[in-house]
Amino acid sequence: MAICPNCGEWHVYHTVCGACGYYRGKLAIEKEAAV
């Protein structure tokens, strides 16, 4: 496990962060905004 440098949440190494959608400092997946 690793800490996402963008949002600070835990995620699996070498995968996109499920919380913010960033991978290696770049937006990989656009997350929908919570309403």
Automatic annotation (TrEMBL):
One of its GO terms (molecular function) is structural constituent of ribosome. The keyword Amino-acid biosynthesis does not apply. GO terms for cellular component: large ribosomal subunit. Keywords: Ribonucleoprotein, Ribosomal protein. This is Large ribosomal subunit protein bL32. It comes from Bacteroides fluxus YIT 12057. Coiled coil: none annotated. Belongs to the bacterial ribosomal protein bL32 family. InterPro entries: Ribosomal_bL32, Ribosomal_bL32_bact, Ribosomal_zn-bd. NCBIfam families: rpmF_bact (TIGR01031). GO terms for biological process: translation. Pfam families: Ribosomal_L32p. SUPFAM superfamilies: Zn-binding ribosomal proteins (SSF57829). The keyword Ribosomal protein applies.
